[in-house]
Amino acid sequence: MLNTQLRLARRPSGEAKSTDFSVTREAVPSPENGQVTVRAEYISIDPSVRTHLNAGQSYRAMVGIGDIVDVPVAGEVVASAHPGFISGDKVTGMLGTQEYAVVDGATLTKVDVSLAPLPSWLGGLGLTGLTAYFGFEEVGKPKPGETVVVTAASGAVGSVAGQIARIKGARAVGICGSDEKCRWLTEDLGFDAAVNYRSPDLYRDLKEATPNRVDVVFDNVGGPLLDTLFRRLGMRGRVIICGATSQYNEGEIYGPKNYLALATLRARMEGFIIFDYVDRYDAARREMAGWMKQGLLGFRENIVEGTVTDYPTVLHRLYQGENVGKMVMRVVPSKP
Ligand SMILES: NC(=O)c1ccc[n+]([C@@H]2O[C@H](COP(=O)([O-])OP(=O)(O)OC[C@H]3O[C@@H](n4cnc5c(N)ncnc54)[C@H](OP(=O)(O)O)[C@@H]3O)[C@@H](O)[C@H]2O)c1
After folding, report:
1. How many CB atoms lie within 10 A of CB 137?
2. Run of H or E residues at 230
3. Which of 137, 167, 219, 332 has its CA 20 to 30 A from that of 253?
């Protein structure tokens, strides 16, 4: 078996391009004691990967030059020297931009595809869905009747966050980049209102959508949009800093100018990182699965086909806002 791998060749400037990567092909070794060989079926496409390619803002180790890019993957066990796995098991793990990974079985999560299809284990029941869940549980804590605004609301984290806000009894307002996405949020996902941030009068639209101001901001975008949201924050508001997709490709990050609203409003802004809650993932998934069964929570994956070497092109499509829901790449075999 030959393994095609995509490796970082140089530190990108601005958006990562195909020319920032190199391709290697090598034989897949047999798994040693405790190891498992996984064939990648779906690779997760995440905006934050850009922050791991340069030094600076990332919460994870920087990808080394010549290294495979460390990204979440869902796939099938094809060989196992670990007692907990057999061929045919479906698993997820940080397996990187390659067709096959030989890893310590302890780093893998076995998934139940009778509960949700494999791509959902990279999305709603994977890290992005869990991020929405813990952002509210640990930081935002929305209460019934409060207004929650979610940015990048039609994306992987945002689409789940808005639905959870509704489950908690809050009014969910989504912000995203097209009228079509806004319609999806209100008509299919049950958001109470949605605003297109490309509107010529964003503040007016936001004001209309949040007549009682905003109690919780679940921010995935950062930059000037977050600044505008400070102007709609209410007393004792909570701003959850989940991510800042608008800033990941920028050399210099735009910091909020309107932050003094936090003092005036006795409000607070707090970040979090999903990996701090690993020991609670299973319990969170059980609660989310219950909401799914009650018809309160649903997931959508935006599946794009590509070879491992297409990864940078698909990432570019995410930054262009082409995705609705969680973007994943279905891995098709590379031609030798
Ligand atoms: N804290 C944590 O532990 C944690 C864990 C996972 C993810 N995150 C963060 O959560 C955020 C969302 O991640 P995701 O995987 O769910 O991605 P996503 O929202 O599915 O995809 C990115 C979306 O961002 C929007 N976007 C792209 N460029 C933009 C720009 N310049 N300005 C405004 N919007 C832009 C696009 O939608 P539009 O059409 O609406 O522009 C695009 O669909 C990211 O910031 C990520 O880093 C944090």
Report:
1. 17
2. helix 223-230
3. 137
**Which atom of ligand 1 approaches the CA of 324 most closely?**
43
pLDDT at 57: 66
Give yes or no for residue 211 having a pLDDT over 80.
yes
Predicted confidence (pLDDT) per residue in 149-188, tens digit: 999 999 999 999 999 999 999 999 999 999 999 999 999 9
Map residue 45 onto helix, strand or coil.
coil
Beta bridge partners of 27: 2
Q: Which residue segments constitute the domains of the chain, with CATH numbers given?
A: 2-122+300-331 (3.90.180.10), 127-276 (3.40.50.720)
Across the range 43-52, mean pLDDT stands at 96
Distance, in Å, from the CA atom of 23 to the CA atom of 100, rounded to the nearest integer, reads 14
Structure pTM? Answer: 0.97
Atom index in ligand 1 nearest the CA of residue 176 equals 40
Please state whether beta strands 193-196 and 171-176 pair in parallel, antiparallel, or not at all (unpaired).
Answer: parallel
Residue 100 near residue 75, CB atoms below 8 Å: no
